[in-house]
Amino acid sequence: MAPQAPSRKSADPTQAIAPQLLAWYDANHRELPWRIAPRELAKGVRPDPYRVWLSEIMLQQTTVEAVKPYFRAFLKKWPDVSALAAADNEDVMKAWAGLGYYSRARNLKACANAVAAGGGAFPDTETDLRALPGIGPYTAAAIASIAFNRPAAVMDGNVERVMSRLYEIATPLPEAKPEIRALLETLVPNDRPGDFAQAMMDLGATVCTPRRPRCMLCPLRDDCLALAHGDPEFYPVKAAKAEKPARRGAAFVAVRPDGAVLLRKRPEKGLLGGMTEVPTTGWTARQDGATESDAAPFPANWQKAGNITHIFTHFSLELHVFRAEIHQIATPNDHFWAAADDLHGEALPTVMKKAIEAAIPGATRKPHSIRPKRPK
DNA sequence: CAGACGTGGAG
DNA sequence: TCTCCAAGTCT
Length: 376
What we know:
Shape: globular
Strand order of the largest sheet: 1-5-4
Order of helices and strands: HHHHHHHHHHHHHEEEEEEH
CATH superfamily of the largest domain: Hypothetical protein, domain 2
CATH architecture of the largest domain: Orthogonal Bundle
Distance between the termini: 98 Å
Number of domains: 2
Number of strands: 6
Largest sheet: 3 strands, mixed
Number of helices: 14
CATH topology of the largest domain: Endonuclease III, domain 1
CATH class of the largest domain: Mainly Alpha
Radius of gyration: 25 Å
């Protein structure tokens, strides 16, 4: 027995990460509508998989603040997965309107249908979760760990950033993902894996931020290689991104004397799939400004009402908005009239609300529940 | 694998 | 104004 160097296990950074992070998480708990209070969690209460799933889908590429009201509204309308499965597709799209990435809503409904058809219980393993529509590697791991206490490697944008800095990963994203995942797997604890995952994401969201990280407040500052070497903000290294092209088109807001507006439904697939719109021309890259009213869906006294611009992920759009008062025109095929009072409840994406607002200011605003204009 | 796919907030 | 980007997934 040759004498070994003294055991330094307690000083092994890898072993220390999870406990340090969890201690920080416990001391900095964030109240979120889909989270179980620490007191309940300590008693062994598990989160409702339906709520975990719903929140995770909504949180994909979407900020916490944007999700909160939608999460509450969905939970009130559809308290469990069987209720959501029994809902109309159209009602789900209407409830999702404004949140973006509408394929998520279609997949959400498809997933609810699948789970309900299978008895109403969500799968409790990454592999089985991954097979459901709208659930990719991240969401499968998140649900498995948070709802079912499984030690899965939950890797989102926050975790990638934290790990890139902690280990000073020089490989650019997304190429570095496998490398980061391998390191992450060495950190995931068997005890409280769900809290570990949420702690990593909270840390990325509140301390290890993309710009101006608050390293002085970081529970992992003593282990962070990027900080030790001086420039955490430099990480993660990312590949250069492409320029976004510009597109133009015209939108036509037809208004009846009673204030109703002519709408139609977009194709199920593709941009704003399954959502509602006002009639528009195609959105082309042409720069000649030829978005004239002669391209209107039908002849009318089209008046220019203004221009709106909207930035999508991969292109910018300028829409020339035209308005016309319509009296006796037959409703075109596949179109419908939405009453003025119902506009705010239609499945209108933000870009379409902007177009309608340009023609009829205030038209898509949700009316106040209290109307203090009662006669005496 | 790279591109499609929304929106609103922060700096 | 403008760039970045937020708890990604699908094709």
